[in-house]
Amino acid sequence: MNAKIKDRIWTMVLYGISGFVIVLLVALISYILIKGNGFYKPSFLFGNAKFAQAGGGIGPQLFNSFYMLVVALVISVPFGVGAGIYLSEYAKEGILLSIIRLCIETMASLPSIVVGLFGLLIFVSMTNWGFTLFAGALSISVLNLPALTRVSENAISDASKSVKEASLGLGATRWQTISKIVLPSAIPQILTGIILAAGRIFGEAAALLYTAGMSAPKLDFTTVSLSNSASPFSLFRPAETLAVYIWKLNSEGMVPDAAQIANKSSAVLIVMVLLFNVLARILGKRIYESYTGKK
């Protein structure tokens, strides 16, 4: 068998594998969307669930998911990007750097349920906060920090190769080079990593079961406070997210149409995660084109 025939065979095999993955993904998404038909209705998206009664909606859970997303990103992005800058621009090869990388790899491999138990011990019990949105956001940040750090480090390292020496050669300081030249060039990749992390935050359930709780009281938006538990914007109130709500429906079934609500909620969740991924690709490409002058 000559080289051309081998090349064609393996090319067909790889195309077949790729096609199988695409078909599998499309089938999975289609099944979830078909089972959750009607998930797009405003009465379901913005309504309140009714305990022990048929019907209701996912308004509080959807709000809690987005609020958790914002708070977790506010916590994790500065630390993740800062760690990426340190590792790519300031850290020197040696024992300390090896230890830091080992810690990052270890954190990246932690199961989310283990992080949830850690959050229960530290952010719930030791602080005496109880089940709060802030405890959940801190636990999610622990999960996302390794990925954000690696994405930021790789993005800054790739961006600095072509512009770092030129900037320093023109007399710019190290920090000026990083803040004015390197970071803007690395923003597309960093932003892509942030949006992908947002998709993980939105779909996470295991870590939040033990930290944010499983209750979603009726939201009263007339009160705006970060500490008053009566306010929907409070960081110190229980916050049942959409992913946790789906788990609770399938495990407890406290409402007559629990399966139907769970199917619709799953459809909303999968659509949001898909939107996060698509948005990451589009935004990253647009920003990259704006910085490189391509159209």
From TrEMBL:
InterPro entries: MetI-like, MetI-like_sf, Phosphate_PstA
Record's protein name: Phosphate transport system permease protein PstA
Membrane topology term: Multi-pass membrane protein
SUPFAM superfamilies xrefs: MetI-like
Annotated organism of origin: Clostridium algifaecis
Domain annotation ABC transmembrane type-1: ranges: 62-280
Compartmental location: Cell membrane
Taxonomic classification: Bacteria, Bacillati, Bacillota, Clostridia, Eubacteriales
Pfam family, one: BPD_transp_1
Keyword Thylakoid annotated: no
Residue ranges of the TM segments: 12-34, 66-87, 99-123, 129-148, 190-212, 266-284
UniProt-listed PANTHER family: ABC TRANSPORTER PERMEASE PROTEIN YQGI-RELATED, PHOSPHATE TRANSPORT SYSTEM PERMEASE PROTEIN PSTA-RELATED
Family: Belongs to the binding-protein-dependent transport system permease family. CysTW subfamily.
Keyword annotations from UniProtKB, A to Z: Cell membrane, Membrane, Transmembrane, Transmembrane helix, Transport
